[in-house]
Write a structure and sequence with these properties.
482 residues, alpha/beta, Isopropylmalate Dehydrogenase, Alpha-Beta Plaits, 2 domains, ten-stranded mixed β-sheet, 32% helix
């Protein structure tokens, strides 16, 4: 009878720069603590980029990731110059890793911080928003980046944040958006947050406009517990939170999807420190703790985390967190790992010990299907490249209007310049020209005919955006005066 392999399969990448140093140190600690891991090592990063793979990962590596469904990843170096894609973005999108989880806790007085009581977890949406990476140069002067936000994407990440809070004994979920300006995209995120929050009456919830929320986070992080955000805000503020907690170098992160999960430090590859035994492995090690919890090996995760806390409070520090009067022994990468291993089974005395046994892993939630809305096309925005006065452009475009489609408004970078524009408004060569039928229905044939007339008239139009209502509500920004 053959032996059953009880070890969890994990794909491991040692990465670039300090990656091999900190990965080996982290694995030494995890395995010494009793982690049951069946490791499959793949190559990613700079060497793979140089072999002609633009995303820094070779095709055979995907086979390992699909088999193990768990990726423990060290930082990589992306070569300078064009043509190289972000490996993280590629992996997150390809494998559907929609939730980025970043705990940001203070370790005062052993790591300096102005916020010794800080213990915040940022849950960042990972696939949508401006990170869709859809950009265009539309005119000589204007470039565009599309911000794409979907209801399923919002619901999935918001529900994940509430499930995470409940599973980990957290008390409150906060939402950061900018829906006072981006009323449709960020407005959708906020709307979904309100809907989902109603299903979790055991948890507090609140919403902040992202700018004042960021100020509050930087000034009083103790006011927050779990924060859920769209992609760009979460990317920026999770680094800010990690730094004000003490150090970006101490933070690990998890990228969770329905089928696959990736665990990594949030810092870069620091190539100048490569091979010098100077890097702090803590971020990657704490990502490994998150990985063990994900794998259901919470007892080992707890042992490692408490040993790490005990090492920290006993003043065994790497150079990046060394501080006179607090630190007692300066160590390198290997020495730090050995110090943590020597303290396995111990709990911190000053810092609060962690307890993971009661926090059972939860299944990533799925978005719920909604009945389709009644959609009606009511107009079109014609985007035009033009150098000249808006009134002159308006007279030219008014001749294109026929029947159901008449020119109603022209804006430049979102500011209405016709009719009733102001001479002080600064304009570029990029104009949004709105044609509508007074709110009545417009056919696709009518939009095509308008475009054809614009082409015949020599109007340099860049693109069109259809204006639609959904269940009678406008699915487009109204603009000034509309």
């Amino acid at each position: 009878m053959s032996a059953v392999n009880l070890k969890a399969p994990v794909t491991v990448a040692y990465g670039d720069g300090i990656g091999p140093d900190i990965m080996q140190a982290s694995l030494d600690v995890l395995l010494a603590a009793g982690a049951q891991l069946d490791l499959d090592v793949i190559e990613i990063g700079e060497g793979v980029y140089r072999r002609g793979y633009s995303a820094g990962i070779a095709p055979e590596a995907w086979d390992s990731l699909r088999r193990t469904r768990v990726f423990y990843k060290a930082p990589i170096t992306t070569p300078q110059g064009g043509g190289f894609k972000s490996l993280n973005v590629t992996i997150r999108k390809t494998l559907g890793l929609y939730a980025n989880v970043r705990p940001c806790a203070a370790y005062a007085p052993f790591v300096p911080t102005r916020h010794p009581a800080m213990d915040v977890v940022i849950v960042r949406e990972n696939e949508e928003d401006l990170y869709a990476g859809i950009e265009h140069r539309q005119t000589e002067e204007v470039y565009q980046c599309l911000k794409l936000v979907s209801r399923p994407g919002c619901e999935r990440i918001v529900r994940f944040a509430f499930e995470y809070a409940r599973a980990n004994g957290r008390r409150k979920v906060s939402c950061f958006t900018k829906d006072n300006i981006m009323k449709l995209t960020d407005g959708l995120f906020h709307e979904v947050f309100r809907e989902v929050a109603a299903e979790y009456p055991d948890l507090e919830h609140e919403q902040w406009i992202v700018d004042i929320g960021a100020a509050k986070l930087a000034d009083t992080p103790e006011a927050f517990d779990v924060i859920v955000m769209p992609n760009l805000y979460g990317d920026i503020l999770s680094d800010v939170a990690a730094q004000i907690a003490g150090s970006v170098g101490l933070a690990g992160s998890a990228n969770i999807g329905e089928r696959v999960a990736m665990f990594e430090a949030i810092h870069g590859s620091a190539p100048r420190l490569a091979g010098q035994d100077r890097a702090n492995p803590s971020g990657l090690l704490l990502a490994g703790v998150m990985m063990l919890n994900h794998l259901g090996q919470s007892a080992v995760a707890q042992t490692v985390h408490n040993a790490w806390l005990a090492t920290l409070e006993e003043g065994v520090h790497t150079r990046d967190i060394w501080r006179e009067g607090v630190s007692r022994r300066l160590v390198g990468t290997r020495g730090f790992a050995e110090a943590v291993i020597a303290r396995l089974g111990r709990r911190p005395e000053t810092l609060a010990p962690v307890t993971y046994g009661a926090n059972a892993p939860f299944a990533p939630p799925r978005a719920r299907l909604r009945p389709p809305a009644e959609k009606q096309t009511v107009g079109v925005d014609l985007f035009v490249q033009w150098r000249g006065a808006p009134d002159v452009l308006a007279r030219r475009l008014q001749r294109l209007g026929q029947g159901a489609l008449q020119l109603k408004m022209i804006t430049n970078r979102g500011v209405k310049v016709w009719p009733d524009g102001l001479p002080e408004t600064t304009c570029t060569d990029h104009w949004r020209c709105r044609f509508m039928n007074g709110g009545g229905p417009v056919s696709l044939d009518q939009i095509v005919a308008l475009s054809a007339r614009a082409a015949d008239a020599g109007v340099d139009f860049i693109k069109t955006e259809h204006l639609c209502t959904f269940d009678g509500e406008p699915g487009y920004s109204l603009g000034q005066g509309q």
